[in-house]
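Milestone M4 deliverable, item 7.
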Amino acid sequence: MAAAAPPTAAAASRAKGDPGLAPAKVEALVELRHPRGLNRFARAVSDPSSPRYRRYASVEQLVARFGAKKQVRKRVLGWLARHGLEGAVSPTGTYVTARLPRARAERLLPASGASASASGSGRRVPVALRGAVRRVSLVSTRPAVERHRAQAPSAGASATPKKPPYSSILPHSGTAAGCEAASTGGAGPGFEPFTPNQYLTAYGHAAMHARGLKGQGQTAAVVETGGFRHADVVAFAKCFGLKPPPIQKVPVGVKKPLPPEDETTLDLEMLTVGAPGLDRIHVYEGPGSLQGVALTAATALGGRGHQPDVISISLGFCEPQMGGNLVLRNAFDNIFAVAAGAGISVLVSAGDQGSSGCRVEEEDEEATALPVTAVSLPASSPYATAVGGTNLALTKKNRIKQEIVWNNSSFEGKIGIPWGGGGGGSIISPRTPWWQSAVKRYGPGRKVPDIAALADSYPGYAFFCTAASCLGGGEKARGWSRVGGTSAAAPLMAAGVALVNQHAARRGQPPLGFLNPLLYDLGAEAKSRGAVFNDVTVGNNDIGLALPPEAGGGKPVGCCQARPGYDWASGWGSPRLANLARAAARAGS
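Output delivered:
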């Protein structure tokens, strides 16, 4: 299915975090000319059929080899300095940024067309920089990020589920464990949240833990636009008999650690229960602007002598908002290609607005989504593993009885965004990645998600947070509540990858690195697909019927339905970690 056209200018102007150029200052992104070959290198070390599979280089080696040469950087920084501007070279050495007044940006970097003037993309490369610069674009400095966390609405008339056409809402199942406050999560009878013992058993983390694989020897990094209270993570872990791994804050482009909020807290709690033996979790806290998130993600690749084994990112930007900004897209692709070349796995949440991935703010400050198909960057990068959303029905022993696509668009009454797992086709990555070439059913281009996991807030995850942003969803006081979202699914799966990496290390093998080539190889064969994935074949993530008719909603947008094998509602489904570990060990040998 072809991706829908970007929203109209009027609709886009209402989008949350609109990256238009209204603010007084903007960020110039200058893409440098740099040596080619990074994509070939990343493919060679990520392709299970390659003789160089998992023979990685360090981040420093890759930046030195594929980043812009010293004379190119010096030329661009000198030009900026002559115009009274301070430039900064990105950690990957592929682009330079500089902040400047909007009016001055329009004079120094005039638009190359009418559409470019509105979006900031397609700026003319100054004559003095030709030969050193590939492209120039402008982006807003205002926050534009969408956090992928879905809080359940309070019980009551506004949260009554409909029956048809489809609802992923399921009552609590399985057998919970932990302190009593977590087991109830402020929910009504029958919708108590899942506790860690349940989803860890369902996906295989618990079986790995039983074999002593708890993440020892592994480090994780999370890319955040907010902070956390360490005491919240400790209280959450204590309820389930755990102690969090060491956690280190790393401010990026901000003068001090950011105020605590729900998103970062959730990421850390999922990593804590999923891989409690991690050597360390690095929390990279940066601005919520388009360029700010790119800078934070690049910094999360690590410093000299240190790099993480896995990076989890639970935020993104709807693609149509970016106005075809190739410099920014290339920046993310380059960051994640360096990660692939260095053996770092990057897992990104696919979004929480179903196949309608662009959020808008209504006049009454209620959030909803635009009735067009759209996916989220950086999940749509061809070097990221996008994690979609599902819901679970468990047996008493917490085994998966059924797993279905997350779609909460069947509520009566106004509850804001009709939540659902992100998925669909990219409009800014129009080429089909080499590792996705066998998935022909959906046409060309990058398709997301790649895998999926629990994200529905009914019954949701037990969650502990005392930050101000954690008030919501009807709970009476800060503390225990229930949440959903691909923001929980991504770090939970990232923790699982850390366990699989540890399994590989026990056999003298390097880490898995970029996951998708291996995942798609395993998915292509019926036998390995049935062993490694829990195939999700029920449901869809089309929330169009629940969107306001006055905004063009009230009817399906036409994407995306689950079916056997790969689909862009749930990818290959959820991984069975123990079997994935064995399959990865065979591929690595």
